[in-house]
Design brief:
single chain
Amino acid sequence: MAGDAPIAVAATKLVPPSIPSELVERSRLTARLDAAVADPAVRVVVASAPAGSGKSTLLAAWQRDRSDVAWLQSDRADGDPARFWGHVVAALEMLVPGLAAARAAVSNLDPEVLFTRMVNELIGAPPICLVVDDYHLVANPIIDDGLDRLLELAPPNFCLILGTRVDPALRLSRLRVRGQLIEVRADDLRFEPREAQQLLAARELTGDQTSALCERTEGWAAGLVLAGLSLGGVEDRDAFVTDFQGDDRLVVDYLTEEYLSTVGADDLDRMLRTSILERLTGPLVDAVCGSSDGDRWLRRLASENQLLIGLDRRGTEYRYHHLLRDLLQLEAKQRIGASLSAAHLAAGAWHLAHGDPYPAVDHHILGGDLVTAGDLIAIHANDLLNGGQLFTVLGLLDRLGDLPERHSLSAVTKGWLNHSTGRFARARHYYEVADRNDDGTHVNLTASLGIMVHLAEGDLSTALQLASAMSSPTESTQVVGLAAAHTWSGRHDLARRHVTLARELAAAEPSDYAAAFAPALGAVIDLESGDPVAAAALAAAALERAADRGIAEAPPLSLAHAVIAHTTTDPERARLAGDRAVELIRRAPEPFTFAYVLGLVGDRASSDGDERGLELLDEAARVLATHPDTGIAGRLVARVRARHGRIERSADSGLIEDLTHRELAVLHHLPSPMSQREIASELYVSLNTVKSHCKAIYRKLAVGDRKAAVQAARDRGLL
């Protein structure tokens, strides 16, 4: 996702819905809102009431004449924390331009970074109020916790207003006790007879009829509006008022039986088909309905029906009132159920053609085309993950059911997500599924996941085999896998070329993951090549990129912190960087990175007199003890442990004597997990023969054990 804003924001999410032409000024409620935001003690206003109570209309009308209100219209997709906070920042940025700097932290796994930047910009700014409408659609406790935290940190000039059908899971009791909460409830929103008279003025009802209807609906806004719609062809208005029922369920029943029966056949058909859409535009209506006058139809319908709500001032985007949409969807299933799949697929194709992959995937899932949905998720996962929208991708994959168990692209996507979050066993499972079902179309993508899976399992030999089989990788994530395999095997020249290519591809795509991880690997290569200055520069570049793009919490960044700890001349900086490196790598302890990080940090800590350093070195050795081929990580850990007296220093010289043909045959099996007995069986020789060959190999390579022999042989081009 290009540019500085990781989250693409629809402009209509940041403006309130259009105000109905028959707007009723509700001064008793707007005065209450004015008083709430003017009181520095008030932190939150909660407008909580059922659908159709008039919450959105009240808030939209109230903010109309104010210049200190930012608006966010929530939807189901905002359940992803990165998406939600990205939209919050975008809304507030319209009033506080300095918040642009907070965009980069939106996708950070630690929201404290984002909140700190937001609060720093809000302090000293003029009073500002954020309205989040339809907050009940967000439905994520992580976001609830985040709002609680933001309210704790925010200065007194910030006030939050939530429009919702159900009470948010915030710490309302504490806010209430402290006098920091103002509540607008269903009882407050009920229309009084005087207000109902204004709302229904065009229906020419008598005062008694209006009062009776207000009583029948119990002042429920949607009930009054629906009653007004139904009055069009009614002659006996007294009987209508007497028979009308205003509670939610009965109004729906009434609307179904009476109102929809009065809608023209073409209008009803379009309304049923477009009920699948959260937002309606003329071209999208035309795509779903096969029409050519969608813009004109929407404008006409909106002028006749207050339950079609305008979302912009130009009259180009609309949504159905939630109650009406729910009703239309129920009716659509009964009347045109067989056509809904085609409508969803048409909507999905339109969104995809217009560069909006999330609703495209959603509609393909609802339309039953899971394979296309799985392909789209895989294709666009990088864009979503660049913005930190892990929840969005995981949620979409979960909606595919068991498709990832047989579909290569969705399996490999799920495998990468599991690997990046440290769930290595699940990553292996989906790698095997992808490998089994790959028809050759995505062989590089599958192989790159396989490389990372085998590295996570400590199987460097198999990772290198997969790397050698990959041909002309064209995507940065694939190249990072190659760079990692060659880095840990000590093939520095080859690794360096892949690091360079990964950084170039990452910048072009873009890919935040590759752009940060590739220079971290490059720092390791420079350090191993004896250039600590270049290593420190690359490590700093990796951390700067990660901070700019909000991925500073990614475990692979532990390498960059460890290099900084190892190379800096400042002991305090070394300690802080070392602590950060260890903290990050413990979240996803892939053995090579884990041991290398602990080796660098433990070496520096021990040199600075910190007793924890030796503990880290011993822990690194224990991690590598179960793996036969430990690459440069094993060599580093052995070297620094010897330097600090944890093991006996081994010789470090060139090849003493050429290996024989038989010894080379044994050598090629040493990186594998095979025992000496299994190697003997494979080569059709005795166990004693293999033992003798191993002793000769160790002597000629000037090493003391099998693991050191593997890396020494690799360094000398024998493996």
